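testing teh design pipeline on a random one, pls ignore if ur not involved
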């Protein structure tokens, strides 16, 4: 079901600016967009109430914290009807940072972040393979992340 959102150019400019720098103050953003800081505050509140803006996240260099392995896991389900139950189980595994329901060869595609290969093996062997409904998995280890970015919103 598609919900028609009533967003104007200012809303989209606010979203784009905050995706680039979530720490910018409402006053500074207002100056940049030629409106008051109060207007920015009201607009952000409206965007949060519509679940367009879902908090602000800190960008962290995981490698600097010792998380050296990023892997992508293609998950084959025994039946696609098991998706919700399996997704609920996968949510309980903290090393899984992203999960998508997909078309193509896999039913699901997950991103896993671990400190080392031994931890990845533990997650795959002891956690994932014990989930009822998972038929098998295929693992892809990332050798390097070339870039990560947000989409540019249409204005």
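output:
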């Amino acid at each position: 079901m598609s919900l028609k959102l009533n967003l104007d150019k200012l809303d989209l400019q606010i979203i784009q600016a905050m995706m680039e720098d979530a720490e910018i103050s409402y006053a500074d953003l207002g100056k940049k967009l030629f409106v008051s800081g109060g207007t920015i505050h009201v607009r952000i509140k409206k965007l949060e109430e519509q679940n367009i803006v879902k908090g602000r996240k800190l960008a962290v260099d995981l490698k600097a914290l010792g998380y050296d392995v990023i892997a992508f896991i293609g998950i084959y389900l025994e039946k696609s009807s098991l998706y919700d139950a399996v997704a609920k189980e996968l949510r309980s595994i903290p090393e899984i940072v992203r999960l998508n329901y997909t078309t193509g060869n896999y039913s699901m595609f997950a991103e896993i972040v671990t400190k080392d290969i031994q931890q990845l093996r533990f997650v795959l062997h002891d956690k994932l393979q014990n989930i009822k409904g998972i038929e098998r998995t295929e693992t892809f280890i990332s050798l390097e992340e070339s870039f990560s970015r947000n989409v540019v919103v249409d204005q």
